[in-house]
């Protein structure tokens, strides 16, 4: 699933909007606050956390947008960006 959809924000959302959306969803799906056994709240919470971690960091967000929303013509570009993010 798309991280922007996961948090319910647009692709042009600011860091403040992303943080606000994350806090709202984190309160809703946090395992300690949600006792609904019909939904796997821990899994949903982890998905929300992963989306926030990626979108709140400018470098990770740039890499996410580049790798998921653009046509990459040079495979070396993908490998370079992967190793840059992995080593930093």
From TrEMBL:
CDD domains named among the record's database cross-references: DnaJ
SMART domains: DnaJ
Domain J: 2-68
InterPro entries on file: Chaperone_stress_response, DnaJ_domain, DnaJ_domain_CS, J_dom_sf
Alphabetical list of Pfam families matching this protein: DnaJ
Keywords: Chaperone
The protein's name: J domain-containing protein
């Amino acid at each position: 699933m798309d991280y922007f959809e996961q948090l319910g924000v647009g692709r042009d959302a600011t860091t403040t909007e992303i943080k606000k959306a994350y806090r709202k969803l984190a309160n809703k799906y946090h395992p300690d606050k949600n006792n609904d056994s019909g939904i796997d709240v821990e899994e949903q919470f982890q998905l929300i956390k992963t989306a926030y971690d990626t979108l709140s960091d400018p470098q990770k967000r740039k890499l996410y947008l580049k790798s998921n929303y653009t046509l990459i013509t040079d495979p070396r570009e993908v490998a370079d960006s992967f190793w840059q993010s992995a080593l930093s």
